Amino acid sequence: MNHKIAFLFLLFGLMVRSQQITCSPEDKSLFESKIEALQDVKASKLGDTLVFVGKSFMGTPYVEKTLEVGELETLVVNFSGLDCTTFVENVLAFGSMLKKNQHSFDAFTENLKTIRYRNSFMNGYPSRLHYFTEWIRNNQKKGLVKDITSDLGGVALNKPINFMGTHRSLYPFLVDDENFEAMLQVEKELAKEELCYLPQDQIESKEHLIQSGDIIALATSIKGLDVTHTGIAIHQPDGRLHLLHASSKNGEVEISELPLADYLKGIKSNIGIIVARPTLLSF
Predict the structure, then answer these.
(1) What is the DSSP string of 162-219?
(2) 113 near 154, Cβ under 8 Å?
(3) What are phi and psi for residue 260, nearest 5 degrees?
(4) pLDDT averaged over the chain?
(5) What is the model's pTM?
């Protein structure tokens, strides 16, 4: 009888777990291929490891709103289509696996959940770190990254971050009143925080202080928004700093043709960058 009860509890646990993760058989196969291909990565610096992982995604199609799946929040695992944030999250999750010499899909999903959700706990749509400045702050508390923007000479900016609350119709999950009210509370807390960014006209003179593998977030002048895009810093043979990212313009993961400082000049709303250095200390 005890064995039967134990089996039922195990079966229930597996069912609950499967309901919390969304991953196609194709993406599960892509995970297995990728982790096998990355096993021989040996880099002296964490940043170099992350660049190697990031480059392994080059050519992967850019797909918008890859996490907006179904009616309830689940941990979405998607390697066949990436947006700019899921690209960075996947690079960090695989980087943590290599650091810990992990190989299993379960280990990957735990790492991804830790990175993607506030305080590592998935509890519905509002628990996801939707605003990238909060993503950086929360992952800094976890010991995964360190915001080095102020060290680079960044300047403070007081700006209400409330785009989701003021553009409810753009977010299907916010049709639910409970989700909407919870996001308004998140934005209320964000209003207490100061945004620090490195102005666009200072990037070229400071790019030698930014390391390959650092996370770059593009700060914006758009009302209510903190960041419009993100990627991985990479120094190229031309001696300049470029951006390894999931590009909506060219439709795939690529390295920017122009150096980062010049690339940003073509974005009308860009005011500069926020830089977070991966540490993965809690892994």
Answers:
(1) -HHHH-GGG-GGGGSHHHHHHHHHHHHHHTTSPEEEEEGGGHHHHGGGSPTT-EEEEE
(2) no
(3) -50, -50
(4) 92
(5) 0.91
